[in-house]
Amino acid sequence: MQKRGDIVAKKGTVTAVVNQKGGTGKTTTCENLGIGLAMEGKKVLLVDTDPQASLTISLGYPMPDRISPTLSDLMKKIVSDQPIESGEGILHHPEGVDLVPANIELAGMEVSLVNVMSRESVLKQYLDSVKKEYDFILLDCMPSLGMLTINALTAADNVIIPVQAQYLPAKGLEQLLQTVNKVKRQINPKLRIEGILLTMVDSRTNYAKDISALIRENYGGKLKVYQTDIPRSVRAEEISAEGKSIFRHDPKGKVAEAYRVLTKEVLQNAEKRRKRQLEQLR
Ligand SMILES: Nc1ncnc2c1ncn2[C@@H]1O[C@H](COP(=O)(O)OP(=O)(O)OP(=O)(O)O)[C@@H](O)[C@H]1O
């Protein structure tokens, strides 16, 4: 149950950007929505929860294996009850976001969680200690429904699901929704699906609209599809090698514009939710 003080103080909203299918635009969305929110004056922490470290690399740290400490070190400290110093392991990106980086050691960490007490909530315990510093915390999830993704869902208030429009994975989506619902029932009752984001849309033809309609038909209005969808563009593909956001790489392009509009939509939804929660507490 959220407390009034938390809502008024806008204690950091944690969003897991998740889809167990690979290459659906999770990392690109985390990076550009995160930087979009920072450009709107919000304090943002991005957390790379994927041992592939795509988010870390994409933000301009091309050799994540040389970074220390990373998320796996912080999680190890939580597991062994060691103190974490303020700001420890948090990098400050020139575009105004903070980053907890990852590297391949996180894969070993995931395996070792099997023997840990409260293994689903190690990430949550870490984030609870830094949450008050941020308005938004975005978690870039790995393409699997393993223990790191369960940790992300346990720590999250809500979930954004990027879906590559032309490969609507009806079955995959079903499995993901089941996992989200299971975590919600068993561990994290406040978890909500914020919305499905259509990514790499080839053109604003009827196709994207058909997919949105199909999702609504199949999931009976329970799942919101963001009004904004992200167009496909080679300029978006280039950013991971550039180490900067689409706003710096191609500020006037269609993908930058789409992430700008998505940022506004996310902020409006957050504000509506905040008002609703405050009304409920009256
Ligand atoms: N709007 C876009 N237009 C064109 N290419 C894109 C777009 N968004 C992402 N890509 C490219 O698609 C690929 C997958 O994107 P991304 O890494 O964001 O997906 P992901 O879901 O995080 O992948 P993984 O599951 O491997 O973590 C990358 O090569 C990325 O550069």
TrEMBL record:
Database matches in SUPFAM superfamilies: P-loop containing nucleoside triphosphate hydrolases (SSF52540)
Coiled-coil ranges per UniProt: none
AAA domain boundaries: 14-193
Lineage top rank: taxon: Bacteria
Keyword Lipid metabolism carried by entry: no
Cofactor: [4Fe-4S] cluster
Pfam families per the UniProt record, alphabetical: AAA_31
Self-association state and partner proteins as the record states: Dimerizes in the presence of ATP but not ADP; ATP-binding is required for double-stranded (ds)DNA-binding. Interacts with DnaA.
General function of this protein: The key enzymatic reactions in nitrogen fixation are catalyzed by the nitrogenase complex, which has 2 components: the iron protein and the molybdenum-iron protein.
Protein name: Sporulation initiation inhibitor protein Soj
Organism: Mediterraneibacter catenae
Phylogenetic lineage: Bacteria, Bacillati, Bacillota, Clostridia, Lachnospirales
